[in-house]
Specification:
Blueprint (H helix, E strand, L loop, with lengths): L4 E3 L9 E3 L12 H11 L1 E5 L2 H9 L5 E3 L7 H9 L4 E5 L4 H14 L4 E3 L13 H8 L6
Parallel strand pairs: 3-4, 3-5, 5-6
Antiparallel strand pairs: 1-2
């Protein structure tokens, strides 16, 4: 364990996400410890914004997803991703303005390191999708 994260249940509370004092999220990818063997096996990683997105993918039998702890990828996270063995990177950011900007920045930063794919979703984020929707709409887009 490298840190703890908590989320406010109140809509107007800022910040929405709280991290333990010594936790430096820029150095980590959520779920890396568990996803790494699946990434090595499939040569693919799925990059999402947060923990809830990872949980929903895990519930749907997708085990190679990583959370950024937000909508920006740091240089340290990119290095960890490059060391993971992934050749293919599926980027699924939230369907909002911040997610759009994050996709563009990740594309610019990673286009020389990975085969990039940008699956589309209709929900706000993967965490809002049902397992059935993931099976029907997302899983077919995760095949390269």
């Amino acid at each position: 364990m490298v840190g703890c994260v908590g989320r406010s249940t109140m809509d107007n509370f800022n910040p929405k996400w709280l991290f333990s004092k010594s936790f430096q999220k820029r150095f980590y990818l959520y779920n890396y410890w568990y996803a790494r063997e699946h990434i090595a096996e499939t040569k693919s990683a799925i990059l999402v914004e947060g923990q809830g997105d990872v949980w929903r993918l895990e519930e749907s039998g997708i085990y190679n997803s990583l959370g950024l702890f937000g909508c920006g990828m740091t240089d340290q996270q990119k290095i960890k991703l490059e060391k993971s063995g992934a050749l293919n990177l599926f980027v699924i950011m939230d369907n909002d303005e911040a997610g759009k900007l994050a996709r563009e920045k990740i594309e610019e930063d990673c286009k020389r390191s990975f085969n990039l794919y940008f699956p589309t979703i209709e929900n706000k984020d993967v965490g809002d999708m049902s397992s059935q929707d993931i099976d029907l709409y997302l899983k077919p887009q995760l095949e390269c």
